Amino acid sequence: xxxxxxAEMFLDYRDAEKSLDAMVIFTSGILAIAKVxxxxxxxxxxxxNFVSASTDYNKFYSKEKRAxxxxxxxxxxxxxxxxxxxxxxxxxxxxxxxMLVGKEExxxxxxxxxxxxxIPSELVLELVQIPKYLYFIVxxxxxxxxxxxxxxxxxxxxxFLGITFHLCGQVExxxxxxxxxxxxxxxxxxxxxxxxxRHIYLMQLAKMLIETISWxxxxxxxxxxxxxxxxxxxxxxALSAGNVILTLKTFMVMSACLVQLFGYSYTGxxxxxxxESVGHSTYFSAWYDLPREVAKSMIYVIMRAQxxxxxxxxxxxxxxxxxxxxxxxxxxxxxxxxxxxxxx
Length: 344
Known about the structure:
- The chain is mainly alpha-helical.
- Helices cover about 80% and strands about 0% of the residues.
- It has a two-stranded antiparallel sheet with strand order 1-2.
- Strand 1 (about 310-315) and strand 2 form a beta hairpin.
- The protein is elongated and about 80 Å long.
- Its main location: membrane.
- It is a multi-pass membrane protein.
């Protein structure tokens, strides 16, 4: 599919609407290939996290702990359903718009026109001389390509977000155990040591997840910013020209980019807050009733929590809600300048 779009862009680069569609689908295809390749070729970090998740569900017998894990599992399922549902809706909309535009041109213009497809591929198919009676089959195949691309791109995001939410649930259970830590004489130091080792283990799992997605996030953020700006500019031009089809398409592209960025930003923000709140839970525990050695050791837990594990793109750009708002503000400022240029 990526090669078809690349060839189509090479053959016809003057159609703005087709170029926008091609750039969106091409970027999604590259992201899908990169994510699937990364998760399948180097899956060690993900496997360790999923093995830990499976162990947790078998180990935690307390109703309170299971309730925490189920709540975070529900958050992961909701994120998965939202992303996949939005992806399928966008793919269906792209296909439906191509079909409606084809019918409209057939009615309005009494001439032979090249049929429209979900993927910009008219010139490529004409070049290889695909018979017109195979239009429906080609149309369905391209629609399935969009669905598979959505699964590879946003499906990989759903997988990552789901296991990250479970990790946040594990941190929530750890905080509950720290608050409930009581003075049991000789067993107190041993119980505290177990909690510290658990904290270190969870931080290692978080670092593994961040290492898995780090460089993919660089391309994800860059491509999303470019698509938001270009589609926003096309959106302004389409509104000025009264092009309803292009307006709808560009709005869907911007919405898809914003939803995808919001998923990563919210998850990164939530992970950071959970890691930071380990220090808060340690401070609000009954440390004053614990042995002196344990109370002193708690200071190091609080100090370590002040430098939480954060979701970073390329190990240097923090991804959280502040980043999300900064991207939106920058994009809107850019679009405001372009709008003034168009109006003038």
